[in-house]
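Quick question, first post here. What does this chain look like in 3D?
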Amino acid sequence: QVQLVESGGGLVQAGGSLRLSCLAFGGRVTINAMGWYRQGPGKQRDWVAAISTSGITNYADSVKGRFTISRDNAKNTVYLQMNSLKPEDTAVYYCNRVPYDGQSWGQGTQVTVSS
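> Answer (accepted):
Ran it through. Tokens below.
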């Protein structure tokens, strides 16, 4: 069973940047399309960004042009570079397979953007 561990969250002012990391233990991020999801306060978990096994990326409209997903196969890690952050980006961010197939969720990493 793959274990996903997210890190890199924190408190940042609006307009700031953060880089999230997702390390996969017990599996390879290269054999599946991977993505980032987020769950804001009182909201459902939504998909944010995805990267295919061939490196093709896709983004939710709300983050397009501000977030960049990438993958380092040697480090078995998926990243999410978040720029021009907005208060509405405040959420717990998770990584997982895309499409979601029942793989266990990690603990997530909290991102809080102050106005």
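The mean pLDDT is 94.
Strands lie at 3-7, 10-13, 18-25, 34-39, 45-51, 57-59, 67-72, 77-82, 91-97, 109-114.
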